[in-house]
């Protein structure tokens, strides 16, 4: 049956939004479902777990709990219950969009001095390795919240696949083993980490079966008692004592105080599409909205690739400058979002762009530079009723802090490095920007995670990507490709580029530009630099004209992982 979301309903609500803004949650119409489901994640075991829960009568939100918790077992280098996530939910029954902020928080005893070396520069060893690099995890509370408020099944049913796989074991893929190799020196520092990831003191060979009874028990406590099963009682005691023995500063009160936040998503209208995306403490949605508002004043379709790319790079440059300058945790800092998201502000920024000359970043008002990382994971779900989830999850760098709290099987994140820990360091005039994202007890560190929906008259996309600061530009380019009519697999395969204000260069994936385009961009003053790797993007699309779903995962992943983005009929 052909079904489109009621564009007339959507059109009558457009007056609610001027350019980009914090739209009311009600202004995306409810719709009938596609009658089947699609899931795209970074691992086939996680995708299968989502379908297992859908087959038991769960909805997209239950599936999201199953996918997230299974990723926490089978792709724990990228995310886990020692980390956090940001998820965008679309409820088909009333058309409501909700943003779940399960981002980590700084512990009460956070002390910026420990992250500064004797030379006054950031001490990256402390901010990225070991328990002092870990924020208070948000993922367990976020999963419990999603099950309780949006799911149809009990939390225990949605966690069952993850618990089973943790107990029975699975064979880690080449990517998992490669990241153990990358982080082996740090994992070797902590006995509970080495016991899991370096059996016999070595990086395991492929074919190795990883069984995690401690992690299964920790997940079981969460399944039985909900968030209290993680943030109070035995798990909490083990987390705090292991962390403190290894030099960390968490207390039981930090864990007990952790709360999930529901926030209003950001909404931006662009070329007849409505993009719903992540608000602060993600910087991603603000930056994506700013870029789209700037680009809405150009007709990119009339330009050659070099000139349309040039304008997009210039819009990225300006959006990232603001990202660095203004953004932080909305519960702690006042941000000029009305200004950043307004059409008038975008008009002003657009007027500073030369049609054929790069603006050196140091000619723009100064701000701090963002620090890119390449980890994290994203999955996308649409269920048979049209409920949707875009969820990006992270422990920050590969295996987060590298520190497993003994007896829990939980790898703690190293998300403290996402705070501006040493204000003024990269740039003496960037102090104000750093302050918005300076650590404070209980504060959430700024994230780039940008789970997004794109609603059009004929098609809808659920999209997101890992990739540190490149998350934002990868998701932006995916959104633009979808609006250009590309399919899910064309979007994930599309070659990518990235500019983040500082360093003042364009990171380019091999094959993104032909020789002539690269030369034109260079002649305009852009510095092009080859970059690899790029984020593992997972996209689901829904064509309302044919009611067809399409799921695609990133073709950049190593081969042999099975089909991880799948569409299935679910009764
Ligand atoms: N840790 C990556 C991010 O949140 O952006």
Report on this structure.
Its EC number is 2.3.2.2, 3.4.19.13. This protein has helices at 7-12, 44-55, 60-74, 124-128, 139-150, 155-168, 174-187, 191-197, 213-225, 228-231, 233-245, 252-257, 284-295, 305-326, 337-340, 343-351, 431-436, 470-483, 488-493, 515-523; strands at 20-21, 37-40, 84-91, 96-102, 261-263, 266-270, 273-277, 377-382, 388-394, 404-405, 410-411, 452-455, 459-463, 497-498, 506-508, 528-530, 538-543, 548-553, 565-568. With 571 residues, it is an alpha+beta fold. The strands form 4 sheets. It has a 7-stranded antiparallel sheet with strand order 1-6-7-12-13-17-18. A 7-stranded antiparallel sheet has the order 5-4-3-9-8-2-19, covered by helices on one side. Glycine binds next to loops. Glycine (GLY) binds at residues 373, 376, 394, 396, 415, 418, 447-449, 468.
Using the alpha-carbon principal axes, give the shape. Answer: globular
* Spatial separation of the terminal alpha carbons: 16 Å
Low-confidence stretches: 1-30, 426-433
Strand order of the largest sheet: 1-6-7-12-13-17-18
Total helical elements:
20
Largest sheet: 7 strands, antiparallel
Q: Could you say which small molecules are bound to this protein?
A: glycine
Strand content: 5-15%
Based on secondary structure, the structural category is alpha+beta
**Beta-strand segment tally:** 19
The whole-angstrom Rg is 22 Å
Q: What is the average of the pLDDT values?
A: 89
EC number: 2.3.2.2, 3.4.19.13
Protein name: Glutathione hydrolase proenzyme
Family: Belongs to the gamma-glutamyltransferase family.
GO molecular function: glutathione hydrolase activity; leukotriene C4 gamma-glutamyl transferase activity
């Amino acid at each position: 049956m052909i079904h489109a979301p009621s564009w007339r309903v959507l059109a009558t609500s457009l007056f609610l939004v001027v350019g980009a803004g914090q739209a009311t949650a009600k202004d995306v119409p409810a719709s009938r479902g596609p009658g089947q489901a699609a899931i795209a994640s970074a691992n086939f075991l996680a995708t299968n777990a989502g379908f297992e829960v859908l087959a038991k009568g769960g909805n997209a939100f239950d599936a999201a709990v199953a996918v997230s918790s299974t990723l926490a077992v089978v792709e724990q280098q990228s995310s886990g219950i020692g980390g956090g996530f940001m998820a965008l939910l679309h409820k088909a029954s009333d058309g409501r969009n909700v943003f779940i902020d399960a981002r980590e928080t700084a512990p009460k005893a956070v002390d910026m001095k420990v992250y500064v070396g004797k030379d006054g520069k950031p001490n990256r060893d402390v901010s990225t390795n070991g328990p002092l690099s870990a924020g208070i995890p948000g993922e367990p509370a976020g999963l419990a919240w999603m099950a309780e408020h949006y799911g149809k099944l009990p939390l225990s049913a949605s966690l069952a696949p993850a618990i089973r796989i943790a107990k029975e074991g699975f064979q880690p893929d080449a990517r998992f083993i490669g990241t153990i190799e990358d982080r082996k020196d740090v994992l070797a520092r902590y006995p509970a980490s080495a016991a899991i990831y370096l059996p016999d003191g070595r990086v395991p060979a492929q074919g190795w079966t990883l069984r995690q009874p401690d992690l299964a028990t920790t997940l079981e406590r969460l399944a039985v008692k909900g968030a209290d099963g993680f943030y109070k009682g035995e798990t909490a005691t083990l987390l705090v004592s292991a962390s403190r023995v290894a030099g960390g500063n968490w207390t039981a009160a930090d864990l007990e105080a952790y709360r999930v936040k529901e926030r209003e998503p950001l909404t931006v209208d662009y070329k007849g599409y409505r993009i719903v995306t992540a608000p602060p403490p993600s910087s991603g949605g603000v930056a994506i909205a700013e870029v789209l508002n700037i680009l809405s004043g150009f007709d990119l379709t009339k330009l050659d690739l070099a000139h349309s790319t040039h304008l997009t790079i210039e819009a990225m440059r300006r959006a990232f400058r603001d990202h660095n300058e203004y953004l932080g945790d909305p519960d702690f800092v006042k941000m000029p979002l009305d200004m950043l998201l307004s059409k008038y502000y975008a008009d002003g920024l657009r007027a500073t762009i030369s049609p054929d000359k790069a603006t050196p970043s140091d000619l723009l008002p100064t701000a701090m530079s963002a620090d890119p990382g390449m980890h994290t994971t994203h999955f996308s779900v649409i269920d048979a009723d049209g409920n949707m989830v875009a969820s990006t999850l992270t422990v920050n760098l590969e295996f987060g802090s590298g520190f497993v709290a003994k007896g829990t099987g939980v790898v703690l994140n190293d998300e403290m490095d996402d705070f501006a820990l040493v204000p003024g360091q990269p740039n003496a005039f960037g102090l104000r920007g750093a302050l918005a994202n300076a650590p404070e007890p209980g504060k959430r560190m700024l994230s780039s995670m940008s789970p997004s929906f794109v609603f059009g008259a004929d098609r809808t996309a659920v999209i997101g990507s890992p990739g540190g600061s490149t998350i934002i530009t990868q998701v932006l380019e995916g959104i633009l490709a979808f609006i250009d009519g590309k399919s899910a697999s064309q979007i994930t395969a599309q070659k990518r580029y990235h500019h983040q204000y500082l360093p003042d260069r364009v990171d380019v994936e091999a094959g993104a530009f032909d020789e002539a385009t690269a030369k034109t961009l260079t002649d305009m003053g852009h510095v092009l630099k080859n970059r690899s790797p790029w984020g593992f993007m997972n996209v689901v699309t829904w064509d309302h004209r044919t009611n067809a779903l399409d799921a695609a995962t990133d073709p950049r992943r190593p081969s042999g992982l099975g089909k991880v983005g799948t569409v299935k009929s679910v009764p």
